[in-house]
Amino acid sequence: EVQLAESGGGEVQTGGSLRLSCARSRFTSSDYTVGWFRQAPGKEREVISWITSRPSTTYYTDSVKGRFTIFSVNAGNTVYLQMNDLRPDDTAVYYCAEIPGSGFTAAQATQIKSPIYWGQGTQVTVST
Q1: Contact assessment for residue 95 and residue 118, using Cβ atoms and an 8 Å cutoff
Q2: Phi, psi of 125 (to 5 degrees)
Q3: Which of 6, 36, 101, 122 is exposed most, by the fewest CB atoms within 10 A?
Q4: Per-residue model confidence (pLDDT) at position 27
Q5: Are 117 and 79 in contact (CB under 8 A)?
Q6: Are the beta carbons of 90 and 36 closer than 8 angstroms?
Q7: Do the beta carbons of residue 38 and residue 95 sit within 8 Å?
Q8: Of the candidates 111, 115, 110, which has an alpha carbon nearest to the alpha carbon of residue 99?
Q9: Residue 56: its pLDDT value, please?
Q10: How many C-beta atoms surround the C-beta of residue 34 within 10 A?
Q11: Which uninterrupted H or E stretch holds 115?
């Protein structure tokens, strides 16, 4: 079973940047479908972004378009979420997620509810 480990969270001021990392391990395929979610206090977990290797596609929710960028390195061993121009409403616990399998686009991945593997989460706090 795939294991995911997030890192890179922290506290920044409004307008600042952070880069979150998702280190993947114990995967058996060179293809991947990996995403980032977040959950703010009192709110439901929401999808932020997905990246797929085959086909090579990305997806961003409207609230982060133009500010966040998802990308992978080392053949998908690590997936990053570069977050720029952070705002207080970006404050949340951020989770890395992976859907086993391939062949669907990042947009299609937003409709898949299971199975999904999750990381443990990393806290991002944006102060005014």
Answers
A1: yes
A2: -125, 125
A3: 101
A4: 84
A5: no
A6: no
A7: yes
A8: 115
A9: 93
A10: 27
A11: none
Residue 28 has pLDDT above 90, yes or no: no
Report how far apart, in Å, the C-alpha atoms of 94 and of each of 79, 88, 104 are.
13, 14, 23
> Does residue 10 have a pLDDT over 90?
yes
Tens of pLDDT, residue by residue over 50-67, are 999 999 999 999 999 999
The rounded distance, in Å, linking the Cα atoms of 45 and 121 is: 12
* SS3 letters across 37-105: EEECCCCCCEEEEEEECCCCEEEECHHHCCCEEEEEEHHHCEEEEEECCCCHHHCEEEEEEECCCCCCC
- List all residues 6 or more positions away from 70 whose beta carbon is below 8 Å from its beta carbon: 35, 36, 49, 50, 51, 58, 60, 79, 80, 81, 82
pLDDT one-digit tens code per residue, 73-125: 988 899 999 999 999 999 999 999 999 888 889 999 999 888 899 999 999 99
